[in-house]
Model the fold of this input.
Amino acid sequence: MEVVKFILFFLVMVVVTVGATDSEVRNPLRKRKPQQEQRQRQPVQQEKDAVSESITCPEEFGFFADAEQCDKYYTCENSVPTAKLCPDGLVFLEAGSSIEKCEFPFAVDCSGRSVLQPPQPGLNCPRKNGYFAHEDVKICDKFFFCVDGAYNAITCPAGLVFSNATGTCTWPDQAKKAHCSSGELFEFDCPKVGVPVEGETVNPHPRYADPKDCQSFYVCIDGKVPRKGGCSLGQVFNEKSGQCDKPKNVPECKDWYKGILDYDEEGDILTTTTKPRRPASSNSAGKRKGPKRPVVINEE
Done:
């Protein structure tokens, strides 16, 4: 009888074991699922380990620029580095290990660290943040200021152009942009000056009248590069004296403000009758003739 019970017990255990084995075959992910989840998390863990193993903090605490990428830096806490990125369009400013600050590229020297994160462009914004020239290379005096992908259109004062190098408006000869030279913008070239005779005093920055505008003139820097200037309202440029003067003293410009300003017999302004504005298609009056950084460990 005992033998029969043992045999029955043995047969039941065989059936249970076979059933479990069969169930495992039919559902292979049941026991392997935790292993699969571990494999899915593994690349992230490897990335963290790669940063900690390949980068050594120069100090126990602080903020340090990446050696190759200008908009990347590291936060070191207890000598453990964490990689960070500046907002798109900004780069990390090395201003001391205690300062965490991102700045515009024109304010930071990125020599040897020219790599940047992929851009996130938007309307009129090649990157989400920064100062950017107009997309039309021949429009030199307009640019866009972008903040988090939203832009503001800005126009430079008359005679100035936007400079990519400084993010500000400056003289065309200083900006040094294609299609934005002084000659192209003003359609004016400084006259060539002959060699001065002995004892003659020569103005190194001579002034010349704007042939199209009585109120404007050009200053030729070193006699070569024109920069546009202008007289105050009610005055015109007197080429003979090289100064701004009353219209009555410059015959070709005596009617420049006609219909806009009134003068007394001495040439002084009496009243302003309307907003001063000289249309481009005006009559012939006024036309002239003529630091510390994290160290990368070599893993070889």
About this structure: Confidence is low (pLDDT under 50) at residues 1-50, 279-286. The radius of gyration is 37 Å.
